Amino acid sequence: MAPAVSGRVDSPPFLTLMLDAEAPAKPTEQNNGLPQPANPDLRRIAAIDIGTNSFHLLVAAIDPKLRTFRIIQAEKVTTRLGERDPETGELTAAAMQRGYETLRQFKDLSASHQVEQIVTAATSAVREAPNGRDFLQTILDDLEMEVDLVSGPEEARLIYLGVLSGMPFGDRPHLLLDIGGGSTELILADGRDARALTSTRVGAVRLQRDFVKDDPMPPKRRSFLQAFIQGSLEPAVDKVRRRIKPGETPVLVATSGTAMAIGSLAASEEERPPRKLHGYRLPRQRLDRVVDRLITMTPAQRRNLAPINDRRAEIIVPGALILQTTMQMLGVDELVLSERALREGLIVDWMLRHGLLEDRFSFQSSIRQRTVIHQVQRFAVNQSRAERVASHALQLFDATHGVMHDDSGEGRELLWAAAMLHTCGQHINISAYHKHSWYLIRHGELLGYSEAEHLMVAAIARYHRRSLPKKRHESWQLLANRENRRCVHQMAILLRLAAALDRRPEPVISALRIQAVRGVLHLEIVRERVNQNVSLEQWSLQSCAEVVREAVGVDLRVRVQD
Questions:
Q1: What is the Cα–Cα distance from 46 to 57, expressed in whole angstroms?
Q2: Are 83 and 53 in contact (CB under 8 A)?
Q3: Upstream peptide bond of 507 is cis (omega within 30 degrees of 0)
Q4: Domain range list for the chain
Q5: How far is CA 332 from the centre of its chain?
Q6: Cα-only R_g, the chain
Q7: Per-residue pLDDT tens for 68-108?
Q8: How far is CA 484 from CA 68, 79, 170, 186, 245, in A?
């Protein structure tokens, strides 16, 4: 048990020490005495977000060559560290004890994964409490863990990095909203940099503690609370508005337990709820309906809702009002949910500090490629062969527009991803591997792809061989609409042809000459070497002719260069 924490110390905030990226890690104070990972190709890092309501732990395996990371362990504990003495504002002894025990468990769990470093961020509950630094000193003395006490803007910066790691920004600026227990961060950012970082002392736990006396909340109290939230957030909203350029329409991205719980409630009303909330789009009208429903319920009634745990049921109403009021102030009609936030930002920040990323933009601009290649490696796909198939598939896409497909360009990226992963099902079984590929892609993590795009990639891989799509197939039923099915249907035929050209471990084709005219596709195979036997590839292509004719009404004609 931790000793009682009392008094104050005047030491500056503790900064997490970083290891030299070039030197081998040693079990010293700089890595909290932790043993090192057994696999030298991966670097394992733990990140701990010490929040007002909950503590989060992530253990990440970082690939220095691919310059990306994979989450291998995620834990959340509701510690209610923001529970403070009403007279002094200090963290209570019980709250600090819960926090201490959670950090001890997190350190033990991190050690079991042989991480080389634990990076941390303590946020508003600790930085505002008079005895917050005393709590950190106890953690340092007893657990030998140095905790970084981050400022509001630094917290916002880390949230930006976390969201950036899992969502493509494209050319549009994004407004990132993170509703914590003690503060709310609002960030205006694009793929290159954060334009405005703001942190406001208004959070779900703080509002619950200071303003919610009756639950359900009376209409007058709701109006008062909304006015208070608006007044508190006005400086932040004004700051980001000033930095939005003329003609820009930012995308609002919400991340936090509050946003996820509300998104889950809204999604549960759909006929086919999404499998994951990352990238889920929530219109303001639906948000308003969910908020109106929550406000009229008692805490006991809210606890009975599947997405809401006991502690969330107590604080979700003020958190929901922050979300609703912010949307109204910004004048946006829709938000997008992000499952990534500060804790993932700690991982990205560590990678930046250690030279594993050149800059934020290079990381952001290749999110889709990195996540696909990561899955290629995870499922032991033969990458060189997958790249050959992908190259053939993209050649076919580019040369057959208007004949084999009418895609305007969106399907090209999906086709590439499916081509890279179309054989991943062999990781489970060679037999009917295309079905296993669908399952692995469907249930794997593809960052930067929407839920609909994720399902389309999986379906393209599913239909690259054997039967064409049928209405009874789950992989077909899950596709969102007719346009998505049309794209999958066309891209899968292109992938079928590309895969037919790669039947051997070593390449035998040096080039593919394609001529597409109305109703006819001419494919000419150019051998890798003179007189090389390519009869297998020729036969494989010709066996696709009937399916191509049935699927897109095109006659396939194959020849080999003399």
A1: 7
A2: no
A3: no
A4: 29-150+344-352, 167-339, 367-560
A5: 22
A6: 27
A7: 899 999 999 999 999 999 899 999 999 999 999 999 999 99
A8: 29, 44, 21, 34, 33
